[in-house]
């Protein structure tokens, strides 16, 4: 059976597959959970199995300063 994309839950065919975080994704589905920027396999951060771009999103959300951890961020990314 075909692997299922973690983002859209649809089957991933070999030609469109990108492997990251130990799972197979559709290329357009591998994008930052926060800002939706398309990511490259291995060129991004991860939290709870979800992909994030390293900067600024992962650093802002989960970085050592703890910025954004309390949900006090006043801006949202659309």
Radius of gyration: 14 Å
How many distinct helices? 1
Proportion of strand residues: 15-25%
Order of helices and strands: EEEEH
Describe the structure.
The structure is a single chain. The chain is an alpha+beta fold. Helix content is 12%, strand content 18%. It has one helix and four strands, in the order ββββα. The protein has a two-stranded antiparallel sheet with strand order 1-2. Strands 3-4 form a two-stranded antiparallel ribbon. Strand 3 and strand 4 form a beta hairpin. It is elongated, with a radius of gyration of 14 Å. The C terminus is likely disordered. Keywords: LIM domain, Metal-binding, Repeat, Zinc. This is LIM zinc-binding domain-containing protein. GO terms for molecular function: zinc ion binding.
Task: Label this structure with key terms.
1 helix; alpha+beta
Topology:
Layout: E1 17-20, E2 23-26, E3 45-47, E4 50-52, H1 54-62
Antiparallel strand pairs: 1-2, 3-4
What is shown here, in short?
This protein has one helix and four strands, in the order ββββα. The protein is an alpha+beta fold and 78 residues long. The model is unreliable at 66-78 (pLDDT under 50).
